[in-house]
Amino acid sequence: MKFTSLLRKRAVFAVLLTLLLSAAGVTKARAQSFTVGDLNYTLNGNAATVTGHVDGTAATGTLTIPETVTYNGNDYPVTAIGNSAFPWAGFTGDLVIPNSVTSIGYSAFYECTGFDGILTIGNSVTTINGDAFRGCTGFTGDLAIPNSVTTIGNYAFLGCNSFNGNLSFGNSVTSIGEYAFNGCSGFTGSLTLPDTLTSLGIYAFCGCSGFNGTLTLGGALTSIGRDTFNGCSGFTGTLVIPNTVSSIGQSAFYNCGGFTGDLTLPEGLTSIGGAAFSGCSGFDGILTIPTTVTSIAGGAFDNLTNLSEIHYNATNCNNCSDYYGGQFYNTTGTLVIGEGVQRMPNFVFLNANGLTGELVLPESLTYLGQGAFKGCSGLTGDLIIPSSVTTLGSSAFEGCSGFHGILSMPEGLTSIGGYTFSGCSGLTGDLTIPSTVTSIGQYAFSGCSGLNGELTLGENVTSFGNAAFSGCTGLTGSPSIVVTGTIGSGVFSGCSSLTGEITIGEAVTSIGSDAFTNCSGMTAVHYNA
Q1: Rounded CA separation 306/424 (Å)
Q2: Which of 372, 365, 404, 403 is nearest to 386 (CA)?
Q3: What HEC string does 421-484 produce?
């Protein structure tokens, strides 16, 4: 009974205490709201926050925020501009945030489009919250973010496109939010992000096309998000990305055509987003893909039309494929593949028709994927497949018409995929299919009209795909075609220079139509199926 009574007493005390605190809170809140001149305030202990204008959105003329305000005979420093204090107000002229203010609230000056002068931010402000100046389209001149500021929120200056001077940051900023300066197209000069900056939001400077100097990225950044500098076409000079950066997002530097010199990506980088550097046509030196990269999305380096060399060093890029356009479309330069590279992923250089020079595949290579060099018509020289490669992916070299030397495939190769060398019309000399090959895919050598030497077929081929050698009009010799599987349609169609006898093996299960059409040099057929 005593325990129950004690619980009841405690419950009654708790209820009374809550009521007393609530009543005190209401009284205190009412006592803290006041108006001086044209501005409303609240008290926060020994400091005041500006909460709005007495005329609300109808406010006009200039806005003067004092450093101190007097209420009930006491002076209070004005330390904050409250959330949504002046949205859609019609103020004009300059805006000066006094040195007493430490925080600018969310949407504090949202869509205040009438300002037509300079914005000055006091040197005690530490936080510029999200949407603080969003849509304030009339500010002119420079914008200096003082040393005191550590955080700039999402959308803080979105659409403030009338600035026509420099944008500078103090040495304490650690975070710039998403879309923070999106569409601020009037900034000029160089842009230097401080070494204290660790977080840079997506679209942060998207559309800031007016910069006409260099871009310096702070040394503490770990990632550059999607569209961060998209459309910043005026940056000049070289681009140095800190070694701390491990990922570069989609369209991060899209159409930043003013950068020149080399494009050296940091060792430690693992991921490059789609169209990350697409349209950066000003780079005129060497593009270096580091060993650590494991992912390159489609169009990452499209239309880099002035590069001298591309050094591809990604040793084991598992996610570097994009069937619908490739990563280096219309990008120029001599391709240098680093020793140590193990994988040429599917479609990695698909339609990279601007690549030039001889293609040297390193001995470290073990995987040559589907469509890896499809459409690379500018590559020249011999084509030598390293001894460590056992499978050639379909369309790996399809349309590479610029090769003008020999084709060498190693013993140990087990299959040649469909369309692998289709259209490689410049390859010359003999064609020797290693004895370890068991299958040759459809159209594998179709249109290789430049091959003008002897065709030697390995004895272990069990199937020939449709049109595998169609149009190879220059191949000569008397190949022993001892097939133990299938012969596709049009396999040797048009191979008019082949001579000698054809032997159809006992285990052949099917022969496609037109398999030997126009093989006018053949002298005999031994049919044993």
Answers
A1: 26
A2: 365
A3: CCCCCCCCCCEECCCCCCEECCCCCCCCCCCCCEEECCCCCCEECCCCCCCCCCCECCCCCCCC
Single pTM value for the model: 0.87
More confident residue, 290 or 323: 290
Residue 14 has pLDDT above 60, yes or no: no
* Cβ-based neighbours of 459, under 8 Å, separated by 6 or more: 435, 480, 482
Q: Using one digit for the tens of pLDDT, what is the confidence trace for 241-290?
A: 999 999 999 999 999 999 999 999 999 999 999 999 999 999 999 999 99
Element (H, E) at 7: helix 2-32
- Answer whether residue 324 shows pLDDT above 80: no
Helix H, strand E, coil C: the string for 293-336 is CCEECCCCCCCCCCCCEEEECCCCCCECCCCCCCCCCCCCEEEE
User: From the centroid of its chain, how far is CA 216?
Assistant: 19
Contact residues for 188 (Cβ-Cβ < 8 A; gap 6+): 164, 165, 166, 210, 211, 212, 213
Cα–Cα distance for residue pair 344/334, rounded to 1 Å: 17
Residue 520 has what pLDDT? 86
Q: Is 412 left (phi over 0), alpha (psi -120 to 50) or beta?
A: left
Return the biggest CA–CA distance within the chain. Answer: 118
Q: Are 200 and 225 in contact (CB under 8 A)?
A: yes
Burial class (CB in 10 A: 0-12, 13-18, 19+), 372: buried
pLDDT tens, residue by residue, 152-185: 999 999 999 999 999 999 999 999 999 999 999 9
Instruction: Calculate the CA 519 to chain-centre distance.
Output: 51
158-188: b (≥16 Cβ within 10 Å) or e: bbbbbbebbbbbbebbebbbbbbbbbbbbbb
- Distance between CA atoms of residues 489 and 315, nearest Å: 39
Question: Rounded to whole angstroms, how far apart are CA atoms 3 and 390?
Answer: 83
Q: What HEC string does 362-382 produce? A: CCCCCEECCCCCCCCCCEECC
* pLDDT for the residue 147: 97
Q: Among 29-43, 112-126, 352-366, which stretch is predicted with the lowest mean pLDDT?
A: 29-43
How far is 337 from 210, CA to CA, in rounded Å? 37
**Dihedral in degrees, nearest 10, Cα atoms 275, 276, 281, 284:** -140
Give first-to-last CA distance, the chain, whole Å.
104
Q: For residue 34, which phi and psi values (nearest 5 degrees)?
A: -155, 170
The residues pairing with 264 across neighbouring beta strands, listed in sequence order, are 288
β-pairing verdict for 47-53 and 39-44: antiparallel
